[in-house]
Amino acid sequence: MTREFELITHVLCPYVQRSVIVLSEKRIPYRRTDIDLANKPKWFQDISPLGKVPVLVVGKRQSLFESAVICEYLDEVTPGSLHPEDPLERADHRAWIEFGSGLLNGIAQLYSAPTQEEFDASRNRLRIRFGQLENRLGGGPYFSGENFQIIDAVYGPIFRYFDVFESVVDLGILENVEKVHMWRDRLRTRESVRKAVSLDYPDRLLAFVRGRGSYMSQLVACGN
Ligand SMILES: N[C@@H](CCC(=O)N[C@@H](CS)C(=O)NCC(=O)O)C(=O)O
Predict the structure, then answer these.
(1) pLDDT by residue (tens digit) across 112-129?
(2) Of all atoms in ligand 1, which is nearest to the CA of residue 65?
(3) Which atom of ligand 1 is nearest to the CA of 12?
């Protein structure tokens, strides 16, 4: 494979982390370019139809957007596979990857909720979702058993939010979900997952949440 890859990223973005983890798992060389999403460069807007990261620039002319698409593409153009061979199982993984994107939206609602009432409502919705995930999981250690796959790259960044949040505030969301816990623990120690963010990620994430002016901003400020 002789293509050159550049990943356009943001330091906090969980969708970026998915692509970074897949790049790392498949040992694909690439260049990473962080951008400021509050001040998007014109060249970025030209290659990102939705104005979102990640974008994967392939060679000199082509680029891809949407993290799930990027992960599958990277998987397909390199040896080995991080996606199930069986079409039904693959489709099921895609569905649960989408479920993971829903969880990310739920987490954003949680840390952005302006009032305690809305925060509690977001928290309850997330509890229900993680209960559904618990019911779907098998014996582990990864989503589909022994092998780390794209879907594991999707959930590593989701659980990372809770690692950081729970270091300063007791959210009580991931309760009574034993399989989720075991999966989360396994992902936390996976090298590709650990190294998908910089060492100062927890501080940056907490600073970001403190700056939201939300109910959770206050909780994080008190607990820190
Ligand atoms: N569905 C997209 C979501 C990507 C996304 O929401 N990225 C956020 C950062 S985490 C973004 O770039 N937001 C910029 C904006 O909406 O202006 C994917 O999977 O790639």
Answers:
(1) 999 999 999 999 999 999
(2) 20
(3) 10
